[in-house]
Amino acid sequence: MTLVRKVLALLPVPLRKLLFRHRELLKFLTVGGTTFLVTTGVNYALKFTVLTAKPVTALIVATIVATIVSYVLNREWSFRTRGGRERHHEAALFFLISGVGIVLNSVPLGVSRYLLHLETPEVSLAVQEVADFLSSMIIGTLVATAFRWWAFRRWVFPLRGERFPDGRATGPEVDLGEAA
């Protein structure tokens, strides 16, 4: 018995059923948490070293790195019971949708810095950094995550047995009750 199964066995049945019903979302959010840490680490490493004068660029680079990690983890873990597309088509859609997510993630930081002028010397360095963190790492991430969850499930990793928007079947149906 795996560690996860042992932990789940300790939970009350209603909570266990709820977690099981939403396991795909929980996996997606776990991948998101992991890539949030990657984004944050790379962003601040760049922002405080080679891209000091370009915080939006630092965020975009960090998000691209995290997106690559996200594709691998989502493909192989979060959405492994889904699919039906050829790998290159799936990857192209994933990165296209992630590109939209990068824009959505970056817009709040751009608004904070360039429309609201929450940058030095207009405000203190502490205010600038809090505004940057809240706008990009919190607001931007939440908006982009909601969009990605919806778009990945709809277009990149459709449930087997569903149909693509053009009417083609996605593949054989899978009993998700038995899939781990």
TrEMBL record:
The keyword Lyase does not apply. The chain crosses the membrane at residues 25-46, 52-73, 93-111, 131-151. Keywords: Membrane, Transmembrane, Transmembrane helix. Belongs to the GtrA family. The keyword Aminoacyl-tRNA synthetase does not apply. This is Flippase GtrA. Residues 27-157 form the GtrA/DPMS transmembrane domain. Its main location: membrane. Pfam families: GtrA_DPMS_TM. It is a multi-pass membrane protein. It is found in: Membrane.
